Amino acid sequence: MEEGLSSFWGPVTTTDWCERNYIYSSYIAEFFNTISNIPCIVLALFGLINALRQRFEKRFSVLHISNMTLAIGSMIYHATLQRKQQQGDETPMVWEMLLYIYILYSPDWHYRSTMPTFLFLYGAAFAVFHSLVRFEIGFKVHYVILCLLCIPRMYKYYIHTKDAHAKWLAKLYLGTIFVGSLCWLLDRLFCKNISSWFINPQGHALWHVLMGFNSYFANTFLMFCRAQQRGWNPKVVHCLGLLPYVKIEKPKTQ
Question: Which GO terms are recorded in the biological process aspect for this UniProt protein (predicted)?
Fold first, then answer.
């Protein structure tokens, strides 16, 4: 995209998205693509506080932290548009999906040590490989495959959940990922046309915002399902009547 102010970070060395560079600050290449990660950080922080306060399993605290890490990595990447920072955005994306796979499949996995060991080694091997080899299309295909691996299990959890509010969380998850993906795709395919509009709708920034909510809805739904498995009598309640979260009642023995 056309540049505005002079660049503090030097020439762009990675994918350039459909937003004019260095318009508002010489320190931020893509302003809207950078700040649009803030909702994800705030939502993940809220989820982390809830998970710690109610003493959910540590996997959910790690999951919320991974969401924040990914959002911060995305902010740094879009602020600089440098190759190394792009790796700092993409590698946590894969790690996060591996964590989702663990949370989704581990309850029925009989050999408890094998799954986390394999996923850890896989994530470490990917990080090394990705630091050495640049593969844009291959990365997208790999990421989509990891996402698709989660769908059957999410669907199983959905059909076995009777609570209407929990089911609504799953629907919000599907809705945000569909609309967010559409924003990402349109922004990518029709960038030249969009750039000529008087106002750029910032499709990639909308993708960030929607995926921040998407991750939060997914996490909250999984926390509900896991609490149900553990017999913690979960309920979906709302903070200030708007933001849903899971409230549990553990037996006194726990």
Answer: autophagy; ceramide metabolic process; defense response to other organism; response to salt stress
249 among the known binding-site residues? no
Q: What is the CA radius of gyration of the chain?
A: 19
d(CA 183, CA 189): 10
Q: Write the pLDDT tens digit of every residue in 57-113.
A: 999 999 999 999 999 999 999 999 998 898 889 999 999 999 999 999 988 776 678
Specify the amino acid at residue 11.
Answer: P
Residue 16 annotated as binding site:
yes
Tell me if 30 is assigned to a ligand binding site. Answer: yes
pTM above 0.85, yes or no: yes
Is 184 among the annotated ligand-binding positions? no
Tokens found for residue 169: 């969380």
Q: Which two tokens stand for residue 22?
A: 């260095």
For domain 31-249, the question of CATH label 1.20.1070.10 is answered with yes
Cα torsion for 171, 164, 68, 97, to the nearest 10°?
Answer: -60
Q: Map out the domains of the chain as residue ranges.
A: 31-249
Are residues 106 and 98 in contact, defined by beta-carbon separation less than 8 angstroms? no
Is 21 annotated in a binding site? The answer is yes
The pLDDT value recorded for residue 11 is: 86
Give 112's DSSP letter: T
Q: Tokens 């309850």 sit at which residue?
A: 107
Structure tokens at 104: 């989704």
pLDDT digits (tens, 9 = 90+) for 132-170: 888 878 898 999 999 999 999 999 999 999 999 999 999
Residue with the two structure tokens 């090394």:
128
